[in-house]
Design brief:
alpha/beta; six-stranded mixed sheet; binds 6-O-phosphono-beta-D-fructofuranose
Length: 526
């Protein structure tokens, strides 16, 4: 049977009666403390077979391997895609020399900052590092910093500024001492308007507090594939760390874009992150389909999106420190696979990747889980658990994990109308009233979801988790037949924003239909 034919019956599959609730679908990624459970899905062995046949047809793992070996897998930009080389310490790995030289430079600089050997303009050791960047130069590092905060000792406090809205920068610097604040300007292109605007304002803040001194450049480090632009901005050349065109922005947290994380926790923690990511890469490239966590996640996303009409994918980290994971995954998946043309430029005959969203548990339970349990949409969900507490306090962690697992159970089991009526009558309600109320209380259950669990939050497991999602996204792109590594869709907005600025200044609109607001803006800001 084809996947289309199988899809017509898939909604009849009942997770609980499907004989899949067994440990066969629980696996632990080698070299990590990362668990994956994929038994709670609308699948059966016929669907598995058809999906694995599709993997063969599209040469799924061969194509992934070609990417890893340096193929031009981003043809619209003529680029290799080798973020995985950043976490491969084998001396035969591609780009090994550049990568290891950069890691050594990061290590040395990080140590000098932490040990107070790089001094501020007034001769003080730095206490705070502010990462200025946006998109891939922001979301990954901020998410990693937050996730590891309860686990590792902080050498410096890190802060993150991304939005061109001044409120973002002002809120961060209002609590900081200019004498002890280091800025890392993270921008692959070093042309991103938001980042440069924030970097200039940060420089002005230092100038207005510390005077206009040449030694202010000690307060700036930069990460860029255009180092000359960073130097021109005013960063000392020995504080500019390279990035390469073979590392895509949303896949770049493993590069020197992770500098603020390395400075905050020490280089060894950053290196452990890379080690965990490498373990996930190795697994996703070599494990057989049925045992391959990356393949499983990609196939599930593909199955629900292309065949069962799912339009969104929910990520629920039951770990407050991982609350930024959905934001990071949003860019990773939606900027990578939010496309409507195939690799050859033809119109895609498939759906775009699902909208990724979510929030930390248990908070979401008291807001949007209502829809997850009783809404009409099919929303495949990932529940992410951490099995040991980074910070223990009374019963908190036990309750947190219990809630995560209970949500899974509720997704599977739901609550039957007959049982509800029985309960209501036992509670003293009349049969008529019970029958009238019961439909509102029915929870259909059978909601597909994956559980991903870590033994503990640490850099290795976190690296593995994030890299697993990267592999998922890349594999899903191969299934869809698209380029996961360009992002032309974001360019138009950048161009139009540039053209809008002089219109706001003059109050004269040259864009159709914006006259009233542009004039109002100019008048109000006169
Ligand atoms: O506008 C999208 C984007 O290009 C992302 O892909 C990227 O991560 C982000 O902007 C930041 O770009 P840069 O690191 O060049 O400043």
């Amino acid at each position: 049977m084809t996947l289309d034919q199988l899809a017509t019956k898939a909604r009849d599959i009942h997770i609980k009666q499907n004989n899949r609730l067994t440990e066969q679908y629980t696996q632990k990624l080698p070299q990590t403390g990362l668990w994956l459970e994929t038994q709670r899905h609308l699948r059966n062995s016929d669907i598995d077979d058809a999906l694995y046949e599709l993997c063969d047809q599209v040469q799924l793992l061969d194509k992934l391997e070609a990417t890893r070996r340096g193929a031009i897998s981003n043809p619209t930009e003529g680029r290799q895609v080798l973020h995985t080389a950043l976490r491969d310490f084998d001396s035969n790995a591609l780009h090994h020399d550049e990568v290891s030289a950069t890691l050594a430079a990061m290590n040395a600089y990080t140590n000098r900052v932490i040990n107070g050997e790089v001094l501020s303009a007034t001769g003080k050791a730095f206490t705070d590092v502010v990462n200025i960047g946006i998109g891939g130069s922001h979301l990954g590092p901020e998410m990693i910093y937050a996730a590891l905060k309860p686990v590792y000792e902080r050498k410096l406090n890190a802060h993150f500024v991304s939005n061109v809205d001044a409120t973002d920068l002002l809120a961060v610097i209002e609590d900081l001492n200019p004498e002890t604040t280091l800025f890392v300007v993270a921008s692959k292109t070093f042309t991103t308007s938001e980042t440069l605007t924030n970097a200039h304002s940060a420089m002005n803040w230092l100038r207005s507090n510390l005077g206009d001194s040449a030694v202010l450049n000690t307060h700036f480090a930069a990460v860029s594939a255009a180092p000359e632009k960073a130097i021109e901005f005013g960063v000392a050349s020995d504080q500019v760390f390279p990035l390469w065109d073979w590392v895509g922005g949303r896949y770049s947290l493993w590069s020197s874009i992770g500098l603020a994380v390395a400075i905050a926790y020490g280089f060894d923690v950053f290196k452990s992150l890379l080690e965990g990511a490498f373990a996930a890469d190795d697994h996703c490239l070599t494990a057989a389909y049925a045992d391959n966590a990356g393949v499983q996640l990609a196939l599930l996303s593909y199955w629900y999106t292309q065949y069962l009409g799912a339009q969104t994918h929910c990520v629920l980290p039951y770990d407050h420190a991982l609350r930024l994971l959905p934001d990071h995954l949003q860019q990773l998946q939606m900027e990578s696979n939010g496309k409507s043309v195939a690799l050859d430029g033809s119109q895609l005959d498939k759906h775009s990747t699902p909208v990724v969203w979510g929030a930390a548990g248990t908070n979401g339970q008291h807001s949007f889980h209502q829809l997850l349990h009783q809404g009409t949409e099919l929303i495949p969900t990932d529940i992410v658990l951490v099995l040991t507490a980074a910070q223990s306090l009374g019963e908190h962690h036990k309750l947190l994990v219990a809630n995560g697992l209970a949500q899974s159970q509720a997704f599977v089991e739901g609550k039957l109308e007959a049982d509800i009526i029985k309960e209501l009558i036992a509670g003293g309600m009349s049969e008529n009233d019970a029958k009238a109320l019961a439909p509102h209380k029915v929870i259909a259950g059978n909601r597909p979801h994956t559980i991903i669990a870590m033994d503990a939050m640490n850099a290795v497991n976190l690296g593995a988790l994030v890299a697993l999602y990267e592999n998922k996204v890349e594999l899903e792109a191969i299934l869809m037949g698209i380029n996961a590594y360009d992002q032309w869709g974001v360019e138009l907005g950048k161009v139009l924003a540039k053209e809008m600025v002089p219109q706001l200044e003059s109050g004269e609109s040259t864009s159709d239909g914006y006259d009233a607001l542009i004039e109002a803006y100019a008048n109000l800001n006169d």
